[in-house]
């Protein structure tokens, strides 16, 4: 899903009729199905299975849809689709797209045989919905990926890998059909000694630990995943053992390990995560703008007050700027352009910070109404905060950008 097209596509702000049609289609689902159900599933704090089923029936929750958008030559399909879904509701949308991170991890590093076998099992079909989970973070290894303690030990006699450890903050963790687990095969090498493994459905030893009760995105399931003597066939090592052995041998001789698998997954996914934040920010700007047009105080709409109008102007400009950074990074990633200035981290940083700020400003514009659950902006504000935390905190993004800009080992 991540290889560049044979012929690079020039960057354009016009996505073309095909992507505009897709955008309208996804927006319709977000407006008519997701948004009306958002408050209910936020309160229930449960995976919205009926909405996943509705999305599967129309082909929105499917490998075909996600694959088509990931592989589009412009790179803009996923950002456009994700913005519309998260405009509808972040919690439900994350339930719909949560499997895609595991799919990216597999497609970025896996063999053709592995992709052919496991990608379909990450989504399923109408009437038989499947989920996938990407398990990287641990209680003592969040931003510090090198601190991963989950071990994977190879048994040559049975051609199996045995996994032991605890993962945390896993979207769909424990309820997924397919788990992709990052584990250490050589702890002495730190992050360079890690690999990713597919844990098939029903594998003994894998269980759900604590399910987290979150501040926002509450319709998305987030939990610990406990691995206790989990045995997976050798073919479940993503990329294969021959490639892993070659990489480890090269590192032990002082050579380069290449790009670390978990970091490659996060870097590929950052424009899509940024697009999620753009969707939330856009929803807040649109709602606050409409409110300011219609809310009358002192004989005139509050939007006629400079204090409100200027705030809305800054909000709109910030969301548009975040979208442009996101589209640039998505196009660069799809067309094989290197992120010389950490453009992936840049769009994620700006979009996440923008979503938090504009949802806060939207609450301010609505006044007391904005602080109640009768209006959606308080939920959007709660949802937005995670975008400065997960998939790399804002501080980590700034460190990555700082290293790229200065060429120094910023710590």
Description:
By secondary structure, this protein is α+β, with helices and mostly antiparallel strands. It is built from 13 helices and eleven strands. The chain has a four-stranded antiparallel sheet with strand order 4-5-9-8, with no helix packed on it. Strand 10 (about 295) and strand 11 form a beta hairpin. Helix 4 (about 75-90) packs across helix 5 and helix 9 runs parallel beside helix 11 (about 345-365). The radius of gyration is 22 Å and the shape is globular.
Give a quick set of tags describing it.
alpha+beta; four-stranded antiparallel β-sheet; three-stranded mixed β-sheet; 13 helices; globular
Topology of helices and strands:
Blueprint (H helix, E strand, L loop, with lengths): L16 H28 L4 H9 L5 H9 L5 H12 L1 H8 L1 H11 L2 H7 L5 E2 L2 E2 L2 E4 L15 E5 L4 E12 L6 E7 L9 E6 L6 E6 L10 E12 L7 H12 L8 H34 L1 E2 L2 E2 L4 H29 L8 H24 L10 H8 L9 H13 L5
Parallel strand pairs: 3-6
Antiparallel strand pairs: 1-2, 4-5, 5-9, 6-7, 8-9, 10-11
The number of E-state strands comes to 11
What does the average pLDDT come to?
94
Summing up helix and strand content along with how strands pair, one would put the structural category as: alpha+beta
Q: Give the SSE order as H and E letters.
A: HHHHHHHEEEEEEEEEHHEEHHHH
The biggest beta sheet reads: 4 strands, antiparallel
Helix count, DSSP H or I runs of 4 or more residues: 13
Shape: globular
Percentage of residues in helical conformation = 40-55%
Q: Which radius of gyration do the C-alpha atoms yield?
A: 22 Å
- Lateral strand order in the biggest sheet: 4-5-9-8
The N- and C-terminal alpha carbons lie at a distance of 32 Å
Unreliably modeled segments: none
Please report which band the strand proportion falls in: under 5%, 5-15%, 15-25%, 25-35%, 35-45% or over 45%: 5-15%
């Amino acid at each position: 899903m991540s290889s560049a097209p044979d012929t690079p596509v020039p960057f354009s702000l016009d996505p073309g009729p095909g992507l505009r049609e897709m955008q309208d289609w996804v927006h319709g689902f977000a407006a008519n199905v997701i948004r009306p159900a958002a408050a209910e599933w936020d309160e229930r704090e449960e995976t919205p299975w009926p909405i996943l089923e509705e999305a599967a029936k129309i082909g929105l929750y499917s490998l075909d849809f996600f694959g088509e958008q990931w592989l589009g030559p412009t790179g803009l399909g996923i950002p456009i689709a994700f913005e519309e879904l998260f405009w509808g509701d972040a919690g439900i949308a994350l339930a719909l797209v949560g499997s895609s991170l595991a799919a990216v991890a597999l497609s970025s590093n896996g063999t053709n045989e592995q992709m052919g076998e496991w990608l379909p099992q990450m989504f399923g079909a109408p009437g038989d919905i499947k989920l996938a989970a990407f398990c990287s973070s641990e209680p003592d290894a969040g931003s510090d990926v090198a601190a991963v303690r989950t071990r994977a030990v190879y048994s040559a006699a049975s051609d199996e890998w045995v996994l032991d450890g605890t993962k945390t903050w896993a979207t769909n963790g424990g309820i997924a059909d397919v788990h992709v687990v990052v584990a250490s095969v050589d702890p002495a090498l730190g992050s360079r000694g890690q690999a990713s493994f597919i844990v098939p459905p029903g594998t003994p030893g894998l269980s759900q630990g604590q399910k987290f009760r979150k501040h926002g995105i509450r319709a998305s399931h987030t939990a610990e995943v406990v691995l206790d003597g989990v045995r997976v066939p050798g073919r479940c090592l993503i990329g294969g053992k021959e490639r892993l052995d070659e990489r480890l041998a090269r590192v032990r001789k002082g050579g380069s390990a290449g790009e670390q698998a978990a970091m490659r997954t996060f870097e590929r996914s950052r424009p899509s995560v940024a697009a999620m934040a753009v969707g939330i920010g856009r929803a807040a700007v649109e709602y606050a703008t409409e409110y300011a047009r219609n809310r009358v105080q002192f004989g005139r709409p509050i939007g006629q007050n400079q204090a409100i109008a200027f705030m809305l102007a800054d909000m709109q400009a910030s969301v548009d700027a975040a979208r442009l950074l996101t589209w640039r990074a998505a196009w660069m990633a799809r067309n094989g352009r290197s992120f010389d200035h950490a453009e992936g981290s840049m769009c994620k940083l700006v979009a996440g910070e923008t979503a938090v700020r504009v949802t806060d400003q939207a609450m301010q514009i609505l006044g007391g109404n904005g602080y109640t659950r009768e209006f959606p902006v308080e939920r959007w504000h709660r949802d937005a905060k995670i975008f400065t935390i997960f998939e790399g905190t804002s501080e980590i993004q700034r460190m990555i950008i700082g290293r790229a800009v200065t060429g120094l080992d910023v710590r």
